[in-house]
Each structure stands twice: as C-alpha cells, then as structure tokens.
Amino acid sequence: MTSLMAFPSTAPGAFRPLACALLALLASGAASAQPDAAPAPGPAASTTGVGASLPAVTVSASGLQLGVSEMTQPVSVLEGDALVRQRGATLGETLEGEPGITGSHFGAGASRPVIRGMDGARVRVLTDGAELHDASTISPDHAVVAEPLLATQIEVLRGPSALVHGAGAVGGVVNVLDGKVPTAVPSKGYEGSAEVRAGSAARDKAGAVAVTGGTGPFAVHVEAAGRDAGDYRVGSGWEGGRRVPGSFNDTRSASLGLSWVGESGYLGLAFTRQTARYGLPGHSHGFEGCHTHGNHLHCGAHDHDHDHGEGHEEHDHAHHENDHDHGAVPVVDLRSERIDLRGELRNPFAGVAALRLRGGFTDYVHDEIEGGEVATTFKNKAHDLRVELQHQPIAGLRGLVGVRTAERKFSAVGEEAYVQPTRTRSTGLFLLEEYRLGDWRIEGALRHDRQSARALDSDVERSHHGTSASLGAVWRVAPGYSLGTTVTRASRAPTAEELYARGLHMATATYERGDAELRSEISRNVDLTLRKTSGPTTFDVSVYRNSIRHYIHGRTLDELDGLQLLQFSQADATFTGIEGRVRQALTRQIGLTLWGDSVRARLDGGGRLPRIAPARVGLKLDAQWQSWQGDIEWLQVARQSRVAQFESATPGYGMLNLGLAYHGGTSTATPWQVYLKARNLTDRLAYSHVSFVKDAAPLAGRSVVLGMRVAF
C-alpha cells in the first residue's frame, strides 16, 4: 500500500484529482467493509444488489484459465449483457469505455485499441489466443478484422507481462473470444442467438446471427453479421458542417466451423470471410509529389523557405485547389479470408494436464480507391501456429510450456506504397509457472523470441532476438481484498515498417522513413493493483511505471503545411499512469461507480510523445428493478496540452450517456432483451486527441441506439 498511497503526491497535475478521488472511495470502502459481508457485484457486474455475488469469470488469455481476482496484472473482461450493451462498430469503439483504453478513431471504419498510451504492434489483438493478422498495426486507417457483434467475450490484459502471447505486446493484449470453432455439442442439439440494432448518428443498421448444432461427436457452427452506416453526425458547432464526409462503414462477416468433440477434448476448423467498404476522412491530396531533400521536405515548386511567408501562401492555395479537384474522400475496399485451426486434448498422457493447438492462415487484401480507381493495394498473407502443453503439478508448481511460429508477407503497390514488400518470420518459446502458498499466488514467465525481417526488393534482412521475463504475485490481504504486483522485462523487435518504411503516407499526412539499424526495445515495467471483490464497496485500481530503453518512435524532422517528415528513431522513454474503477452499492437496487485513467509519456532526454490520451473521469449511477436495468453516466475528458513538437493541443469535453435494458423470457428457453443506449446527449462537439484525423473527423454527436437480442 505504501507505493499506492504515495503515488498521487508525486503525480503530475492531471493525475491528482483522479488519484485523490479514487483513494478517498477506497478508504471509505475499507473502513465500512466487514470480513463476513455478503459478496456484492464488482463494477462490471450485471446485478446491483448489496448481497449479490459476482459470477466467476475465467480469463482465457491468462494461459492457466484463471479468474479475474487471481491475475497478477490488471485485466478487464467484457461478457454477457455488459458486452451486448457496450459493443460498437469497431473493436476500439467497443473498449474505449474501459479504464486505460481508448480507440485510435479514424472515422467510423477503423479504430484500434490504444492501451496506456501505446498502439500499433505494441497492442496484440488475438482471436481465441491466435494472432489476428490484418494491416491494422501498419496504419491507423486500416481496420481490425474482428467483428464485435460476433464476440462472446473480450479480454484485455494491460502491460507487457502476458508473455505467453508475445513479448512485443508491451502495451497489452486484447483477446476476442468467439464460437466459430465449437468446443461442445449442444445438449438439446442446437443453440444460438440473433441480434438487431439501429442507430441515429449515422442512420446505421446492424445485425448478427449465430447457430451451433450437432449430433454424436460432431458440431457445426454458422454465424454472420452485417453493418450499414452512413456518414455520422458530429456535435453542434463544427465548422465542417453536421456530418463527417466519407465516414460511412459497410461491413459483412461470415464464418463456418466444424469440430469433432470427444470426452477428452475437441479438434476443429473454421473459415471466416470479411468484406468492408469504408471512407477515409481527412485524406489530403495536396501532398502528392512531395519528397525529401536530406532531412527537409520538398513539394513541387515549393522552395521550403520557412522565412518567406509568401511561399507558404502559394503552397496552401495549391493544396486547396488540389483537394477541390479530387472531390470525394478515398474509400477502402477490404477482403479478409482466414482459416482457424483449434484443438485441445485433456490428460493425453501421464504428467500432462492439457495439450492445446492454435493455428491460422490469413489472406488479407484491401484497395484504397480514389476517384473511382485503385490508387494503392495492400496485401498481407500470414500464417501462424501455436502449441502449448500444460503439465500436471510438479512439487507444487503448475504451468505450461509452448512454442509459437509465424510468417507474414506484406506488400503495398501504388501511390502510397511507402513500405516495400517484406517477409517477417518469428519464433517464440515460452514458459509459465505458478506456485500457491497460503494466501499467496506467485507467477513467473520466461520467453525467448527470434525474428527476421527481409525487404524483398532490396534483399536487405535484419534479425533480432531477445529474452523476456516477468515475476508477479497476488496476496489475499483479507477476505475479498487482494494486492497484485508484477515486474516485467520485455524485449520487442522492430517491425518491418519501422525498419524499411520510406515514402509518403497521405492518410496520416506524414512522410515516413525507417531505419534498418534499429535495435530491439527493452521494456522494464512495474504494476501494482489493489482489488476488492466483495461487500458493498468494490474496486480495482492500478498504478504503473514502464521505462523503455531504445523506444522506437516517429521523430519529426521537418514540417511543411501540415505534412510531417517522420524518421523512425530510438530514445529512452517512460510511461507512468493510474487507472481504476470503484463501485459503491447505495441500496440493493442502486449503485454509484467512479472510474478514470491518466497516463503521462515522456522521452527521458526531454520532449513528449504525440497522441497520448488525456486524463478521464467518469461517474455512473446504475439501477435495477425487476426486469429493468439502467444507468446514467457523466464522462469528463481533460484538455490535453502536454503535446509533442508540431502537435496541437486538444480541448477537453464532457459527455452525458444513458443506458436502459429490459430482460424478458427469463423463465423460458428463449430469453431476450431490448436495450437502448444514448451517447453524448448534450450533443457536445468533441475531438479525440489520439486520432491522426481529429480535426477532420470529430467524435460523434448525439446518438441513440436501439437493439434487441434473442438467445435460443
């Protein structure tokens, strides 16, 4: 507790109000809690009574099928009714209401989770433990090919300690669970669900259906989802109008899976196809033809003389004329086809508790269409295989050992082919062990990775390897209380894009240059998490410090009329932050939740990192009466004025959100629910600081979503 109590006094100004408010509620909860109090739901529970208990939730990504309260690192799990109501059109939108997580927000079609100020390859997105291969780590305007409407559970492990899923995930791991590969034959021969919803902000419509059936040892699963949304409406007062041009999103997904299921396990295959067509707001054609002279930008006849304003005025005029000539925004036309192999065999032979298999092959391609013609084509063909063996307890140790291997071939052809074709191969060996002693659970992990990245056009290859380790412990301080801490050293090899990028990237208004001599990053992270899972007051609060040696970032060397020259460089950096959620049960039907987060990121040699999310605080009142559930929330986002060079500050904003749900058929075999969620009821004009296109694509204005879900 010493570190937790001392943190706010040394925290920067943005931390202090949040930290003090959280600690005040923690103190009041600790003072009023009794050891033998009946358990009450935590912050994410679907029930609100003082004497209610929180159902056990298993974290699949933990490796050892642990519960949330047993985890040494901070974790969030969305499932059941909470997931149904929180689902958005993208994975980033679905998760951005969780402490420590925001969405990258590139219009309506692409939004990837940003965890603790880190995004891209530092946040690994999995589908039931296997890496989800797409192009979203390369650029924020590329969509994540995970459909939230078809997810059964979403797990988020924060920080770099989830070494069984890769040392490169120094920001965290997002594991999207689905039912596309059946693991059991339904007892009545079939089961499924169907959902429809409609929203007002983009005049959007969406629906999903999933059915699993089987007989004997065979089970089959079929699922499909679709979404059709127009340009969305922003808050009042935006000088660009009422809707964001080109922010439409039309997505279709479908899967077919077949499994053999026995008494000791299962083995199955699934084929998934997703198509999407969405716009790219903020895309500028005024930079076409721009190139570099040394460490300076040069665009056409522009002499790039910063001392002569007339030159800038001429370039601005040409810039706008060029935009006017091209008219409509570019459109992404995406197709992804994936084959998943999943299996598990329990107690296959003496000394082995389980043998698990995950494999996948992905064929991904998307065209960026401008003026009705294909301007750039991105392709990503990848396959990976993961095998892990969980052993029976040995001298009190329970754990697993595994190997993962993967290969990715990426290419871009056309106007924005700023990365030459590359082939990346990687192999990782990992070990995870736990030991329980009384009220303590101790966990250790070790991993070694090797990676080679070859630029196919120039035949240049760079290899990196690194060893990572973590040690964590959870102490049940008292009944219902636990204190967890994790210390991690993680090595992340540079991506092929960081090594070999060289060219104009108009979606982000940057000219990017890689560096083939980049070294691996070394992250040293400390997490401290305090939880209370029973009684009228429950909470989960974490503080962390992540020092990264050789941190790879795009350093701005030059700027010309909004276009930035980014050189991938290395420097030591430090990320510190606090995040948490506290819930107080006021009565058996009513509860009050305070949640928030704040992160600060700086280069150790001086200077700030760009697009770091501002501090947030949310206050939510929830209630339940018979078959009704409802909540009302005020979210306050602070102004972000701690900005990097060439980056503009972003004003803060407040949003009023509302949720309402009615559950029917609870006593029958066909339960259903009707739900309504309203966001930004005051129609506030708001901007996302983490977005590359924040000014061209503000956040959505007043939005009401009405939906219905049926399970059968």
UniProtKB/TrEMBL annotation:
One of its GO terms (molecular function) is siderophore uptake transmembrane transporter activity. Residues 304-326 are annotated as: Disordered. Keywords: Cell outer membrane, Membrane, Receptor, Signal, TonB box, Transmembrane, Transmembrane beta strand, Transport. Its main location: membrane. Residues 336-681 form the TonB-dependent receptor-like beta-barrel domain. SUPFAM superfamilies: Porins. This is Iron complex outermembrane recepter protein. Belongs to the TonB-dependent receptor family. The keyword Signal applies. GO terms for biological process: siderophore transmembrane transport. One of its GO terms (cellular component) is cell outer membrane. Residues 69-173 form the TonB-dependent receptor plug domain.
